[in-house]
Amino acid sequence: MDFAFLSSTMVTLIRALPTTLVLFSLSILFGGMLALLITAMRVSGIRLLSGFARAYIFVFRGSPLLIQMFLVFYGLGQFGVIRYSFLWPFLREPMVCAVLSLALCTAGYTAEIFRGGIRAVPAKEIEAARSVGMSGFLLVRRIIAPIAFRHALPAYSTEIVLMMKSTALASLVTVWEVTGVAQRLISQTYRTMEVFLCAALIYLVLNFLILQAMNLLEYSLSRHRRPFAPGLRA
Amino acid sequence: MTLFELLGLGGKGWGAFLLLATATTLAVTATALAIGAVAGAAIAAAKLSGSVPLRLIGHVYTTVFRGVPELLIIYLIYFGGSSGLTAVGRWLGYDGFLGLPSFAAGALAVGIISGAYQAEVFRGAFHAIPRGELEAAMAIGMPRRLRFRRIIVPQVLRFAIPGLGNVWQLSLKDSALVSVTGLVELMRASQIASGSTRQYFLFYIVGGALYLILTSLSDRVFNTAERRANRSMSASTIGGA
Fold first, then answer.
1. Where residue B81 falls among pLDDT bands split at 50, 70, 90?
2. How many domains does chain B have?
């Protein structure tokens, strides 16, 4: 084992880590917001809206992320309408395209996860809230959203880990994040195994941290379900 | 050129090219699923075994290959496989560069990833077998191998169908990443067609639509398989007997 090479590889890869983290957090943020919108449309009961949400989910979950990313990166610039619009300075940037396509794609998967959470809300809880006169946004905020979110959390943590892995595809539209830099190192040095080990270690640590954070969140949201333990109360 | 000429099957159209590439995508995915079934069964057996080192190996395999980006694993197999092959060639007295064929590298990489997911599917399916059935088989003195063949395998396969359907869909989408090795599957074909006609939007939409057709058709196939496999277990048979 050549430790000098391993440590210099690690340093080079860690320099690309901020790019990966920016890609990840922005796409989770925007994807989550879009997913809320799609979920609301899907369960709205209005046929046009739920039909659109269904189609959205089908398209973005049924095709590979890479083709979606290339469609955004290469396809949009083909149209004069977009190239001469105020959006072009943004859409010309590979980073913006990568975040956009990551967010669009994860929104499809996340919307299904959120819908599953909503379906798990017991009907009697909603009926009880209605019988005391709660309705509309208050009902969603107080009853449906908290229960649905708690049910959706395990599946959502899996989706977040998948998203972390998906940021690797941004390297194919010239955003130099960890996997892209690793590929460049491999083709310069031909030392595939060492570079792979370093890059894999970075992703495994990131995933471990994400899962730990999600477990903590899950635990803190299940306070009312834990057995009563007087010694542990604050 | 009009839309029909661009997508036509003959002449200057790209239709036949794209359809052929779709077949390649299916071939890569099917090969990967087969490789993954072997790897997955072995890893599931390791994770279910009593031996601590074997369980550890299984655990490391599923953690690494489900936690590291697919693209990185494809690079590992493609570049690493080629340099390994070149080293073997040098040892045998051949001095040039030997590349791993992109189909083999791609199918192997996607297969290794798919194996990690299939291992979890098989493990879950094994746990779904009622303990009583295994105990009953033991009680009438059925030997280990016969128990495996008669009780475990048929039921694991039945319980695993929905999970395998999900893994197939994952592998189908992962196979698009094999395009980085230069293999002309559907993703790479869409890139070539869009690059040479400058019709990026059109060809990526068509490529995406072909993927959608593949995923929804295979969804149907797996649903039918699930129904068929559960025929003998359906409520009417049990209740009406």
1. confident
2. 1
Give the domain extent around A203.
1-16+176-220
Q: Is residue A55 part of a domain?
A: no
- Measured CA to CA, the distance from residue A4 to residue A25 in angstroms comes to 32
Kindly determine whether residue B64 and residue A190, on different chains, have CB atoms separated by under 8 Å: no
Specify whether the CB–CB gap between A57 and A112 falls below 8 A.
Answer: yes
Enumerate residues 55 to 74 of chain A having a beta carbon within 8 A of any beta carbon in chain B: 58-59, 62-68, 70-71, 74
Return the pLDDT at A230.
59
Closest-CA distance of chain B to residue A171, Å: 10
- Whether A211 maps to a domain, the answer reads yes
The DSSP secondary-structure symbol of A78 reads: G
Q: Do A71 and B71 touch (CB under 8 A)?
A: no
Q: A63, B63: Cβ pair inside 8 Å?
A: no
Residue A189 domain flag: yes
More confident residue, B135 or A227: B135
For residue B47, what are the domain limits?
3-240
- Residue A211 makes CB contacts below 8 A (sequence gap 6+) with A157, A161
> What CATH number is given to the structural domain containing B224?
1.10.3720.10
Dihedral of CA A141/A144/A147/A151: which sign?
Answer: negative
pLDDT of residue B239: 46
Contact between A97 and A173 under an 8 Å Cβ cutoff? The reply is yes
Q: Measured between CB atoms, which of A64, A74, A196 is closest to B187?
A: A64
Residue B198, CA distances (Å) to A77, B118, B193 in order: 11, 40, 8
What is this structure's pTM? Answer: 0.88
Residue A206 lies in a domain: yes
pLDDT tens figures, B32-41? 999 999 999 9
Q: Give the sign of the dihedral formed by CA B43, CA B36, CA A169, CA B169.
A: negative
Question: Which candidate in B22, B71, B214, B219 is best for mutational testing of the A interface (most A CBs within 10 A)?
Answer: B71
Q: Which positions 193-212 of A are in contact with B (Cβ < 8 Å)?
A: 193, 196, 199-200, 203-204, 207
